[in-house]
Amino acid sequence: MGRRAYRTTSLAASRRIPALEGLRGVAATIVVVRHTTNAVTMPVDARRALLEGPWAPLLDAQGAVTLFFVLSGFVLAGSVARGGGRLGLLQFWVKRIFRIQPPYMAALLATWAASFAYAVPDAAAPFTNWLRWLASIHLAPSALFASLLYPGSAGDQLVVGWTLGVEMSWSLLLPLLWIVARTTHWGVALALAAVPLGLSGMPMWLLYGVDFALGVALWRERERIRAWLGALPAAASAGLFTLALVLLSSPLWLGWHVPSRGVLEPNVLSTGAIALRAPGAALLIALALGFAPWRRVLETRPALFLGRISYSLYLLHIGVLLLCTRLIAPASAASGLLLVGAVLALSIAASLAFHRLVERPSVALGNSLCEMLAARLGGKALRSTPPD
């Protein structure tokens, strides 16, 4: 098969790479669908068939989280590279804090408010104990206030929040990974970040440093990767795409699940799963840069739209799910699909409003603070482009 033509514009020329934004949208949608299926009771064999079949990547929420982490490492490496000195570092931290923290706080408050309307299904209803547990949570005001101070799951009031704690911690440390990669080699930064995987008793957030370090490595080698992939025959790139999916979702196919409250959940502390998923995610991201068929899928209008609201979608969908289960009881396959569709549609609608009212103003406020810092310290303001 012949060689293929690719765009010749430099990836360094644009801060936003549309295919990677689309990939975020795909990943966020996978998380929504997986959590909705977690709510529906089914025999354990049926659930295993659902999670371990050839369609596993479409339900692999933990694989989607890995994609988020590696993507963050890639994008943040570019952000650090554009800055410089003390002012650049301060602005990087300001922008990152305002990108994560205010939307997290607003989503936690919104979810807490929604929890006044949650109804715990009775034992005869077709819902899992996982959903019943989440529907029973309503934090005391003191616990809610404490949870607002730094991203986290807030006692499972915002169950997806644990990933935001990891994201915030490695965002603050990302400049260190960048410095190591720039002054030595990205392989050194990757090796250092992978050390916790070989040690026992490590805090959870440290285990995921390998994902962010791989993102830094991808950014450092982005032009070389795109050129190399662009020179491959289409069949070889398709084979790499298959390999990426296998690596990313291999913990599902291997049955590395933790039975919990009537569902099968990933073991987020499994170093083996982290080590397998990370290169799979990195390869999928690399292919988004240089494998035209995959890039075209990710640059479709629906994928780009979902990518723009992906953070809001990720933050809000659990609250929407718990409200929807008051109205839809998935007693059959058809009603189960109806629940998935309703949760996805209503989560998208809520996320669109949240994106406009919370996310964009938060990014704009971060930009304003960066301009104030630049004016005070006599340097150039580094602005983040608010998601459209």
Q: How is this structure best described in words?
A:
69% of the residues lie in helices and 2% in strands. By secondary structure, it is mainly alpha-helical. The chain has one domain (18-377). A two-stranded antiparallel ribbon has the order 1-2. The longest helix is centred in the last third of the chain and has 45 residues, at 333-377. The model is unreliable at 1-14 (pLDDT under 50).
Q: What general outline do the C-alpha atoms trace?
A: globular
Low-confidence stretches: 1-14
**Structural class assignment:** mainly alpha
Q: What's the number of domains?
A: 1
**Tally of separate helices:** 17
Summarize the structure in short.
By secondary structure, the protein is mostly helical. Helix content is 69%, strand content 2%. The two termini are 39 Å apart.
Q: How do the helices and strands line up, and which of them pair or pack?
A:
Blueprint: H1 18-39, H2 44-52, H3 61-82, H4 85-114, H5 129-135, H6 141-148, H7 162-183, H8 186-194, H9 204-207, H10 209-220, H11 222-230, H12 234-253, E1 257-260, E2 263-266, H13 271-290, H14 292-298, H15 301-308, H16 310-324, H17 333-377
Antiparallel strand pairs: 1-2
Helix pairs in contact: 1-3, 1-14, 1-15, 1-16, 1-17, 3-7, 3-10, 3-13, 4-7, 4-16, 4-17, 7-8, 7-10, 8-10, 10-13, 11-13, 12-13, 13-14, 16-17
